[in-house]
Amino acid sequence: MALSYLRSSSSRSANLLRPLSSAASLRRPISTDTTPITIETSVPFTSHQCEAPSRSVETNPSELLTFFRDMALMRRMEIAADSLYKAKLIRGFCHLYDGQEAVAVGMEAAITKKDCIITAYRDHCTFVGRGGTLLEVFAELMGRQAGCSKGKGGSMHFYKKDSNFYGGHGIVGAQVPLGCGLAFAQKYSKDESVTFALYGDGAANQGQLFEALNISALWDLPAILVCENNHYGMGTAEWRAAKSPAYYKRGDYVPGLKVDGMDALAVKQACKFAKEHALKNGPIILEMDTYRYHGHSMSDPGSTYRTRDEISGVRQERDPIERVRKLILSHDLATEKELKDIEKEVRKEVDDAIAQAKESPMPEPSELFSNVYAKGLGAESFGADRKELRATLA
Amino acid sequence: MLAIARQRILGQSFQKIRPAVSVLRSYSSAAKKITVREALNSALDEEMSADPKVFLMGEEVGEYQGAYKITKGLLEKYGPERVLDTPITEAGFTGIGVGAAYYGLKPVVEFMTFNFSMQAIDHIINSAAKSNYMSAGQISVPIVFRGPNGAAAGVGAQHSQCYASWYASCPGLKVLSPYNSEDARGLLKAAIRDPDPVVFLENELLYGESFPVSDEVLDSSFCIPIGKAKIEREGKDVTITAFSKMVGYALKAAEILEKDGIHAEVINLRSIRPLDRTTINASVRKTNRLVTVEEGFPQHGVGAEICASVVEESFAYLDAPVERIAGADVPMPYAANLERMAVPQIEDIIQIQESEGYNSFAFVDTVVCAGNASVNN
């Protein structure tokens, strides 16, 4: 659908969005327009043991539109998951990412599918960023066959190996040494690619993180540790959990960068910088200053340890989707209506995917015993009664 | 039990015609002997040579030549990119090993002893064992965790625990425990080639022991199938199961029992998970008596599982209650006399003849089963 646009005096937000060079393309569909635009990040980067990258980021209309669409999709998906959980179609744990979309989207813009990503349990949007489909997300959340883990993983265990997405981990902090292991393997295989190991401000205090960081620095592994600092480890604010909440400095001898995690362009710039660094010099830490609108999980209202004013304040001032919307409008890259149409499309996509996911059946009972091993060797596996319910593992 | 002198109760002997059994029957004519240490070293060497994705990681595996010299010479041969000395940070380096396995490499992670594996057990269980299942087959984890397990000599409570039953209870793991050099070579090679996470439980006191090996065992393609136990000694009166060092004790006990006319069948489990229930049950159906032997703590141990399995599947064939022999239910003491009491000795295994009803070993079968091969007299 060609998006022609009118040159109108659309809302021009003031300070933050000053374009440094103007993109004066007329009547070109912006979905394919790659004319470079340079935009400044909201705030400069703060660095530790390294020189910060420039705050002028190269982008183009196509990329900005993709950012908008992808983040809108992720936002809509998480909100829909909220409803499904309340309708009891999703069970157990459900950790939502809305508010943090810029991290997933900005990162993807800086890297390729040969680079690896590993994260903890707040993984739905990261999975989609790696190419996962909405159907796979909703079906997995509802425990159906069409799910990315065939219904056997659940919300916290999404994987997409063909895009080098390694999950999806429930144990806080465990994913960081695993990510350093991925980086080790990339270096061992001479793949010239890097691993982004994501963790939260809560996990930042885990001992195994420092063990893995020490080894990564010793062995020059291309590992990028990304602290998604949403300022709360479940119900505990960062200042109550960390003596030093300057997570980008906690690597001591490992360089670090503090990034506005609500600014997709800043995230992109930082990840690009980190990848170049890691390939040459070993590990680096990125601290993404971000925020989650929901509580820690669907069991947590998220308002007992923070004020509603704080939450709505962030939504007003720093929402990642609104930032990109303002950028697009102030540069006359699309009209408000076009952006709203995109949001409507995205909403329909999400609704269609949910409907399709609801059609997907639950796993066959025989799936109880599948994939215990990659090679079962004919071992016997028992169900609860040990007589009726049993299987020979292939 | 504190009995110092064990009464040998001579069963009523009777004449049986037994075929002459040559002790060397199970080995081919080659009489080369190698130590368990050499067996493990050669297995690692050959697998690293055959597959460039195999690499070693652990404390002192490289420049120190291995804390117990199992990895001797491998750093020189394969270089520091494939033989990696780690800091003393089990949680960190085990996680890194598992992550490398996710990507498709084949790490062999050494724990200096399995007592230290507890620092990394989350990665062994939650990151390695469960991943293939949680990802519905997308993420397989071809990793081997190896090292000495169980009691050594005088190393005290924190360095003497046996972890066989802990790891063997976990679906998604394979747990192997070799006894002799043939086992060590064949099982380690199989473990490295296996696409699933394998916990490989060695024994420090066996490293220096020599065993004869055939040419077949020395061949670089030699492999022992995972999940199959080995009958080390055939017998018809009682089945004794054991693994690792206890196999040696069971064999010695069987020789002593032989003199009293009790012919014990000794099964070397080799594989704790998957457990070879078929072989164990077939043996018990033949002998009608079961004794399990292990070094570890008795409660919820390997023997408990074997006993339950045999009661489930072969109850009608049992002439006596199943019996387990295990380590004492106490943390391992240091004093030599107490330590000796805390671990099964050969006398403990021989003692079974008192409880299994061997006094009246006149073989009056009270349970008549079709196909039961007990000799009646």
Automatic annotation (TrEMBL), chain A:
- One short Pfam name that applies is E1_dh
Q: Where is the Dehydrogenase E1 component domain?
A: 69-365
Q: Which UniProt keywords apply?
A: Oxidoreductase, Pyruvate, Thiamine pyrophosphate
Give the EC number(s) listed in the UniProt record.
1.2.4.1
Q: List required co-factors.
A: thiamine diphosphate
Name the residue ranges with Basic and acidic residues bias.
Answer: 306-316
Origin superkingdom: Eukaryota
- Provide the reaction this enzyme catalyses: N(6)-[(R)-lipoyl]-L-lysyl-[protein] + pyruvate + H(+) = N(6)-[(R)-S(8)-acetyldihydrolipoyl]-L-lysyl-[protein] + CO2
**Region of interest: Disordered:** 297-316
Assembly information from the UniProt record = Tetramer of 2 alpha and 2 beta subunits.
PANTHER family referenced in this protein's UniProt entry, alphabetically:
PYRUVATE DEHYDROGENASE E1 COMPONENT SUBUNIT ALPHA, PYRUVATE DEHYDROGENASE E1 COMPONENT, ALPHA SUBUNIT BACTERIAL AND ORGANELLAR
Q: What does this protein do?
A: The pyruvate dehydrogenase complex catalyzes the overall conversion of pyruvate to acetyl-CoA and CO(2). It contains multiple copies of three enzymatic components: pyruvate dehydrogenase (E1), dihydrolipoamide acetyltransferase (E2) and lipoamide dehydrogenase (E3).
Q: What is this protein called?
A: Pyruvate dehydrogenase E1 component subunit alpha
Supply the source organism for this entry: Hibiscus sabdariffa (roselle)
TrEMBL record, chain B:
Q: Which residues form a coiled coil?
A: none
| EC number(s) on file | 1.2.4.1
> Catalysed reaction(s)?
N(6)-[(R)-lipoyl]-L-lysyl-[protein] + pyruvate + H(+) = N(6)-[(R)-S(8)-acetyldihydrolipoyl]-L-lysyl-[protein] + CO2
Q: Which UniProt keywords apply?
A: Oxidoreductase, Pyruvate, Thiamine pyrophosphate
Report domain Transketolase-like pyrimidine-binding positions.
34-209
Cofactors that this protein relies on: thiamine diphosphate
Entry's Gene3D superfamilies?
3.40.50.920, 3.40.50.970
Pfam families, A to Z? Transket_pyr (PF02779), Transketolase_C (PF02780)
Cited SMART domains: Transket_pyr
CDD domains in the cross-refs: TPP_PYR_E1-PDHc-beta_like (cd07036)
Instruction: Name the job this protein performs.
Output: The pyruvate dehydrogenase complex catalyzes the overall conversion of pyruvate to acetyl-CoA and CO2.
The name this protein goes by in its record: Pyruvate dehydrogenase E1 component subunit beta
